[in-house]
Design brief:
21 helices; 5-stranded mixed β-sheet; single chain
């Protein structure tokens, strides 16, 4: 189903003029330099094709003859390759520059064989270069030496004849020869293709998928067999999964195209998710979903004046989200909500790819579920973060030192899957939020994002368990009608912390939050009697001590005449943190209002 959907998407992309996807037999290669040759085959210059964006050099993407899948050994490409193949120099593991006669010899042999029957003035230059060039010359050639560090960076190079328009591999006679070579390829085994149902030559090795975070630089396979235990009926390699060369190229090219796209890909921890529509002309729907999953104001303008996502589409996506969150229907003539959407989550697994999740739905349904997630996450103070926190920023707030590299494996895929399907959030997300709230230090403590995670988890849990009374007590801001003991204890702790700050001001070295928050949220019976005794001293010193004392008494009255609980379970600890956060925000809001009145 996955590969079939990708194969169908490739056929649609071929029909779209602006897709720039590689046709059968070709690859989209990142090329940084062109070797300029004269008709005698001498290198007369090196042309830089990459463009500078900030501190990075962005290679130019060119359509070249299909490149070999290199995982080990030597395998040269036709008319486009890196410096180790095209001029025979590379950097060793020790960092030294060395000559690679073997790689250049393979490049020379393959290209001379391919070019042997092509007659053209420009081709004569390449033939002369291949015939006379010796990799040893690269170490003394003045033009090569002037750019040697750039050439050794691993970037691809192409050929260009001085004074001619375009590159050698783009010339019509070269393309005609390449297409003829593809037709004459040896056909090893012909079977019925699993994807198309046609009798076609079967792929022995499937294409490598590049760009998955954490996978090998050379790429990883979706389908591969590397041990006899995985094979059957005496078949070797990918003949165990009979997919034609044509279909394998199609699904691999389509998947690499989606991963390289800025508007069809979202990364979260170790998971890379791609998504696409099942019909042509659905770029707008795809871009709207991209913004909804990563809602940031895109202010980066490319050199051609284009943005990653156009401002009008950003505005449209924001409007659609707001309408859904308000309980309204999506009525937008420029958004086809019923268009089918495919979502595929991938993660690295050694030299292969692991499918984290696969979902087929409509754009309207997916965005509705994303909007529900943002509604569940909505909490007072969120407006200071832009009103919405994207999934990757959410998980980053749970990571040690708030470093995305420290997000636990598997969590990214699980979190994305629950958002897109409306299922219960992973338990690890909730436990992570509790742990980070209880921890101290620069990156610890209760903040808006962590409180929002706790609120969303509890709200979704009560909803899925049909606990209406539970849903009612989980609110966006302070709920003074919530009489849950854990929630009240959180509010009480916030008020006790506030009165301490009011009494001691900025001279305080450590607040009760720094010393007692973890214990108070787990074992309140052992902490709160001590805190209440300390508060009597703070109230007597605070400027508005009587007002704080009345507020503390109001919360204490809600706890009734029961002793403080000895322990709080995990759910109650979440309610404690939520009460603490809500009361903190209420204290802050009231202080702001008082300052406005005085002004």
């Amino acid at each position: 189903m996955i590969l079939q959907a990708l194969n169908d998407h490739y056929q649609r992309l071929l029909e779209e003029e602006d897709s720039e996807i590689a046709p059968p037999g070709y690859s989209s290669a990142k090329v940084s330099y062109a070797l300029i040759l004269n008709l005698a085959g001498d290198i007369v210059d090196i042309l830089t094709l990459a463009k500078v964006e900030g501190k990075k050099n962005i290679p130019k993407v060119l359509l070249v003859p299909e490149q070999a899948m290199r995982t080990s050994g030597v395998s040269a490409n036709i008319l486009c390759d890196n410096s180790s193949y095209m001029i025979g120099i590379e950097r060793s593991k020790d960092g030294e520059i060395k000559v690679s006669q073997e790689k250049y010899a393979d490049f020379k042999k393959k290209n001379e064989c391919f070019l042997s029957d092509i007659k053209s003035g420009d081709i004569v230059a390449v033939k002369a270069f291949l015939e006379k060039w010796n990799p040893e010359n690269a170490l003394t050639h003045p033009i090569i030496l002037s750019r040697i560090e750039e050439l050794l960076s691993g970037s691809n190079l192409v050929f260009k004849v001085d004074g001619s328009i375009g590159y050698i591999h783009e010339q019509s006679n070269v393309r005609a020869a390449w297409n003829a070579a593809l037709q004459n390829e040896e056909k090893e085994i012909t079977e019925q293709c699993l994807l198309t149902g046609e009798l076609l030559p079967i792929a022995r090795i499937h294409p490598l998928i590049k760009g998955i975070m954490g996978s090998q630089m050379s790429g990883a396979a979706m389908v591969s067999f590397n041990a006899s235990a995985f094979t059957s009926y005496g078949k070797s390699q990918s003949y165990n999964a009979p997919i034609s060369n044509k279909a394998a190229f199609a699904y691999g090219t389509a998947l690499n195209y989606l991963i390289a796209s800025d508007t069809n890909r979202v990364r979260l921890a170790d998971t890379t998710m791609v998504f696409w529509a099942d019909k042509k002309g659905s770029k707008r729907e795809e871009q709207i979903l991209t913004w909804c999953l990563d809602p940031i104001e895109d202010k980066v303008v490319e050199d051609d004046g284009k943005r990653r996502i156009a401002p009008e589409i950003q505005h449209q996506a924001k409007t659609i989200l707001e309408r859904i969150r308000s309980g309204l229907l999506v009525e937008d003539d420029n958004f086809q909500k019923d268009t089918k959407c495919y979502l595929l989550g991938l993660a690295p697994n050694a030299a292969r790819l692991s499918v984290r999740f696969w979902q087929v739905s409509s754009f309207g349904d997916i965005i509705t579920r994303v909007a529900q997630h943002y509604s569940d996450m909505d909490i007072v103070g969120m407006e200071r973060l832009g009103g919405i926190v994207s999934p990757w920023r959410t998980l980053k707030s749970l990571a040690t030192q708030e470093d995305s590299k420290n997000i636990p494996p598997l969590l990214g895929g699980q979190f994305l899957k629950t958002i897109l399907s409306g299922q219960m959030y992973p338990q690890m997300v909730y436990h992570g939020a509790l742990a980070r709230c209880r921890s101290g230090g620069e990156h610890g403590g209760v903040n808006t994002t962590r409180a929002a995670i706790i609120k969303a988890f509890l709200l979704r849990k009560y909803r899925m368990q049909n606990k209406i009374e539970g849903e009612e007590i989980i609110t966006v801001s302070l709920n003074e009608g919530n009489k849950n003991p854990a929630y009240l204890l959180g509010r009480l702790f916030s008020l006790l912390e506030k009165v301490q700050k009011d009494a001691l001001g900025l001279t305080i070295n450590a607040t009760i939050r720094d010393r007692y928050f973890g214990a108070a949220s787990a074992t309140p019976g052992s902490v709160f009697p001590l805190l209440l005794r300390l508060s009597r001293h703070h109230i007597s010193k605070a400027e508005y001590g009587n007002a704080s004392d009345r507020k503390i008494q109001e919360v204490m009255n809600g706890l009734e005449a029961k002793p403080f609980p000895a322990h709080l379970n995990m759910e109650e600890q979440g309610l404690f943190i939520l009460g603490y956060y809500h009361q903190n925000q209420a204290n802050y809001t009231k202080n702001e209002k008082n300052e406005d009145k005085e002004g």
